[in-house]
Write a structure and sequence with these properties.
Keywords: Membrane, Transmembrane, Transmembrane helix. The protein is built from one helix and no strands. By secondary structure, it is mainly α.
Length: about 50
């Protein structure tokens, strides 16, 4: 765990923005990969009727 309470406020803010940006990128990439895998699977199931 990163201890940021002892750091100055501007460093804490920059760290927070960096963490949020990293989470946003990870979610964007993760959902993009999931969409690539799930879309053909859903189409295959829908067309199997």
């Amino acid at each position: 765990m990163i201890e940021a309470a002892a750091l100055p406020a501007p460093v804490q803010a920059t760290l927070l923005v960096g963490v949020i940006l990293a989470q946003a990128v990870a979610l964007y990439v993760g959902y993009g990969a999931l969409e690539r895998v799930a879309t053909p699977l859903i189409e295959t199931i829908a067309n199997a009727r």
